[in-house]
Amino acid sequence: MAQPTQPLPNKESGLFRQVVKFYESKQYKKAIKAADQILKKFPEHGETLAMKGLTFNYMEKKEEAYELVRKGLRADLKSHVCWHVYGLLYRSDNNYLEAIKCYTNALRFDKDNVQILRDLAMLQIQMRDIGGFVDTRYRLLQLRANNRNNWISFAIGHHLGGNHELCVQILSAFESTLDEVPPSEAYEHSELLAYKAQVLQEGGQPEAALTLLEQQQDKLRDKLGVMHSKAQLLLQLGRPEAAEALFRKLLVLNPDDYRVHEGLQLCLGIQPPKDGQTWQQQQQAAAAGGSSSEAARSSSSSSVWSPHSGKKRRLLQAYSEEQRGKLVALYGALGQQYPKSMACQRIPLDFLVGSDFAAAADSYVRRYLLRGIPSLFSDLKPLYADSAKAAALQQLFEGYAAALRSSGSLPGLLQPAANSSSNGPLRQQQPANGSSSSGSGEDNPLTWVLHYLAQHYDRLGDAESALRLNDEALQLAPEVIELLLARARILKHTGDMVGAAAAADAARKADTADRYTNSMAVNALFAAGQVEAAEQTAMLFTRDGDQLNNLYDMQHMWYEVRCGDAHLAAGALGKALKQYTAVAKHFADFVEDQFDFHSYCVRKMTLRSYIGLLRLEDRLQHHPFYMRAAVGAVRCYLALQDAPAAAAAATAADEASLAALSPEERKKEKLRRKKEEKRREKEAEAAAAAAATAAAEAAKQRSSSGGGAADKQKKKSSTRPPDPDPDGSKLAAAADPLAEATKYVVGLVQAAPQHLESQLAAAEVYGRKGRALLEAAAVKRARDIAGPEHPDVHRAIVRFAQRAAAAEWKQRCAKVFTRSNYFGGEQSSDTKQLLEQLADRIGAVKL
Predict the structure, then answer these.
(1) Are 366 and 410 spatial neighbours (Cβ–Cβ below 8 Å)?
(2) Closest C-alpha among 225, 218, 245 to residue 234
(3) Nearest of 471, 480, 467 to residue 439 by alpha carbon
(4) Which residue stretches does the UniProt record annotate as biased composition, category Low complexity (predicted)?
(5) pLDDT tens, 462-505?
(6) For residues 383 and 390, is the Cβ–Cβ distance under 8 A?
(7) Contact 506, 473 (CB under 8 A)
(8) Phi, psi (5° rounding) for residue 754?
(9) Mean of the pLDDT values across residues 589-598?
(10) pTM, whole model, 2 decimals?
(11) What is the DSSP letter of 190?
């Protein structure tokens, strides 16, 4: 422990300890009083000034806090306490880089201060300074080798840094220090062993990981997780038979787990489709190499199945004949073993073809139709990637509709003809029990058959048939909400946004207590440009008196994105930016929220979940909501950049129209405009006065309504400071809109370079800034992602070629492409050739 550079007498030293004690117990007024007693005798005591400033910081006196801490630092520049407090001040304002600098300076004067080292390690892992985090944790381990958290954190640092072998060695060394694990710590030790197996697996040692799980099976508490991990490891080791046995045990526990079904298919050598692979590409791959049994078996050894892969796959996959035969045998047995499993009935629809598919689909959909389950189309929609299956479903449901209209009952079950191939004729059975219904409305199967067919034709682009069938279904059940929502979607796809909004609002009114229908109505109203109506509808589910803040606090990002899009379409750039930046703030909050978990997860030994959290935080900006908000903000700033030119053009056009008038007519026109401006000002003043009166009346009613928890909550919400920029006018008044847009573009390109929206936004911004090389790079990446035929990519290439045609761009682009090897070799010439061809196409000058 470093000695203080400004020692105090015994009495004042006791007072200083009281200041620290009062601060830690949140008795801030007492801490200030004790600090003032010290400062009366020693007004330049740096550490007391710093502690007083830190106390002011938690009393919401930021300016006084920084002033006092800086004054204390000037008075005692070599005090580790002053530097530590200065870092705490920056940390409270989320300025982590400056806080790290302050902690580093504090350690120069007290290198073995455990508290400062812990605080520094927390900031380093928060900022993903893995090298610095490892060094700091190593120093803490040297100082406190008997602390479990120091061992675990040191191992995690090496894991995150990619040094898996050393991480395993550290965990093994820590285990060797344990004599016996008490029962109260059995779960923590189990999690430690499971984490060690995960590190071994990620470090390329699946055999060692599997051995560890088998040897320590009695100590592992997460039995289900162990079974998943062992199955995954067996697949990696090329032992699909043993993995299949584990997957079958998992199916006994939950036969509807799609992740387990995917693992079973991997055991048969059937790989899931690659991300971004189209149906046609899958068919070509299946026809080319899917018939080799040896290749299929070897593919299972290199598969990357994960028990945490998420929800069931929503992509239709192409299969070879050999793969289809294996799947038919597998799911024929599973269907008999688990007759009530929906997954065992739904998955065969992915690989069956011809009459087998029609018969299986017929058996599968009847339960939905007879029970009135409206989500049937959402379940079968992935099958529409195969046009043959879409046609078979259409024929099946058209047959249902005809039978129900004529006889009021469903036809008999379809069966493939005996000894026929999958493409052979179908045999009709007698109507099954329960297939008839004399009910009406939502109890009538015809309602749901028509509902499905309406969505089917909408999916195929036949809006006329879709609306006709939806009308027929609404005549049978006019109050069914799903039918009204389906009508809204159909109208939206036809471009009738106003009609879609009306249909969605009708669905909302049918059940005003349903939050989902309220959200769908708000969404449709925003798409129709009815912003005010959408906002009023959304506020029906918010707390009275604090609607806007309530929506922000609940982080309704879908609402903010839709609202921003509507304002952007209406030209209200400030309001649009307000919504888009709110989404960006939510994601910034998500990043800040991980701070407390750095110590909590290590203390509770939830290490696997902690690693998953860190990896999730590192890819937050891939989220569609953030992508849409960031791209929307870029569009707003680009529109603001163009606003002066547009305003100048409008002014010139207005002056030209006035110049065309006679002097008397020009005078009358100017007077009319002045009167119109005064009228608008009076209307705005009257509306503001009316709003103030209504607010006063509401406050009066709340105050007279008595106490209670609700009133306390309202009073608490009313203490929130008013928004200084409710309409986003300050955001829209940015001095350099292009610089603001560049901030978003840099983040998008760094975090999500594989997304088309990121590259298109970068191309547009860098083109406006005259950065030819960066624009060309963005255009090329966009072309690689979506192909040159994509309309947005084509527009970006044409815009680049048009800029290159300008005289001031010609020399700049020529210099850039001749002196720069950014693309390197063949790619450089390929890019230049592409741009030359497009430049020729639009009549531009060659580069």
Answers:
(1) yes
(2) 245
(3) 480
(4) 285-303, 686-698
(5) 999 999 999 999 999 998 999 999 999 999 999 999 999 999 99
(6) yes
(7) no
(8) -85, -5
(9) 92
(10) 0.81
(11) H
Is the predicted pLDDT of residue 426 greater than 80, yes or no? no
* Gap between the Cα atoms of 176 and 170, Å rounded: 10
The pLDDT-based confidence of 49 (bands split at 50, 70, 90) is very high
Quick one: which of 71, 72, 105, 74 has its CA closest to 87? 105
Q: Distance (Å, rounded) from C-alpha 70 to C-alpha 84?
A: 12
Q: Which residues pair with 416 in a beta bridge?
A: 426
Cβ atoms of 573 and 644 closer than 8 Å: no
Distance CA(456)–CA(467), nearest Å, equals: 11
Query: What residues contact 627, with CB distance under 8 A and at least 6 apart?
Result: 621, 748, 752, 755, 757, 758
Q: Which of 816, 724, 739 is nearest to 775 (CA)?
A: 816
325/330 Cα distance (integer angstroms)? 9
What is the C-alpha to C-alpha distance for residues 264 and 285, in angstroms, rounded to an integer?
Answer: 21
How far is residue 789 from each of residues 755, 799, 802, measured CA to CA in Å?
A: 17, 15, 18
- Both tokens assigned to 82: 């002053």
Residues 580, 626: Cα–Cα separation, whole Å:
9
**Type and span of the H or E element at 243:** helix 240-253
Residue type, 815: K
Q: Please give the pLDDT value at position 789.
A: 87
Give the count of alpha carbons within 13 A of 734, CB side only: 24
Burial of 40 (0-12, 13-18, 19+ CB in 10 A): exposed
Cα gap 268→299, rounded to integer Å:
9
The tokens describing 293, both together, are: 């049994």
Please write the tens of the pLDDT for every residue from 17-37: 999 999 989 898 999 999 999
Residue position matching structure tokens 């000058």: 845
Residue type, position 424, single letter: G
Check: CB of residue 38 under 8 Å from CB of residue 45. yes
Residue 303 binned pLDDT confidence (cut-offs 50, 70, 90): very low
pLDDT band for 663, please (50, 70, 90 cuts).
confident
Q: Is the predicted pLDDT of residue 827 greater than 80, yes or no? A: no
Contact 806, 772 (CB under 8 A): no
Residue 284 has pLDDT above 90, yes or no: no
CA atoms lying within 13 Å on the CB side of residue 533: 15
How many other CB atoms are found less than 10 A from the CB of residue 224? 11
Strand-pairing partners, residue 415, are 427
Residue 653 has pLDDT above 80, yes or no: no
List the beta bridge partners of residue 428: 414
Those residues whose C-beta lies under 8 Å from the C-beta of residue 430, and which sit 6 or more positions away, are 412
Contact 531, 566 (CB under 8 A): yes
Residue-wise pLDDT tens digits, 160-180: 999 999 999 999 999 998 888
Asked if residues 82 and 70 have their Cβ atoms less than 8 Å apart, the reply is no
